[in-house]
Amino acid sequence: MTATDPALTALVQGWCALSLLHGRIEAHIERALQTRHGLSVREYSLLDVLSRQHDGDGGHLQMKQVADAVVLSQSATTRLVTRLEDRGLLARYLCPTDRRGIYTNVSEAGLQLLEEARPTNDAALREALDEAATKPELAPLVRVVESASLPTPA
Fold it and tell me: Whole-prediction pTM value?
């Protein structure tokens, strides 16, 4: 493949369109969450991921798993956890079976804020996708997003 190869050009254009769609959606949701709930998209995502933990086998996530789920580095995730902990939205505790492990749970205040913010997040996502669907270069990607379904975690 050369730099002028049509397949490469199409690939680059597709990646640019995907990046544009992601940026537009994230910016739209960010504005809505910040305005109505004082949360960033990353903070909302972290609360959402941690709220899905459970007490069964494999139910609590290690920091690396949390970082992967919210698409941040481990150090950025740790800083984010600390900020939300300082706001009383999260609490950390030692793993009962491995004293080296530290788990993070969403506090009652964090769960309440998450439940209040969830309709805002969902509505902002829908609005962003509807707006993007009007753009010919983004409409095919919106259809893919709308048709994708991920398996629900056990």
Answer: 0.85
* Residue ranges of E strands in the chain: 90-94, 102-106
Q: Is the pLDDT of residue 38 over 80?
A: yes
**Tens digits of residue pLDDT in 52-95:** 988 777 778 888 888 999 999 999 999 999 999 999 999 988 87
Partner residues linked to 92 by β-bridges = 104
Q: Which residues of 116-128 are buried (b: 16+ CB within 10 A; e: fewer)?
A: ebeebbeebbeeb
Tell me the two tokens of residue 58. Answer: 């494999």
| CA dist list (Å): 56 to 1, 53, 64, 87, 118 | 50, 9, 19, 27, 25
Residue 131 pLDDT grade (very low, low, confident, very high; cuts 50, 70, 90): very high
- Cα-Cα-Cα-Cα torsion 32, 13, 148, 41, nearest 10 degrees, comes to -20
| Cα–Cα distance, 58 to 60 (Å, whole number) | 6
Secondary element (H or E) of residue 120: helix 108-133
Distances (CA, A) of 39 to 69, 105, 126, 146: 18, 17, 18, 25
Q: Among 87, 92, 105, 97, which Cα is nearest to 40's?
A: 87
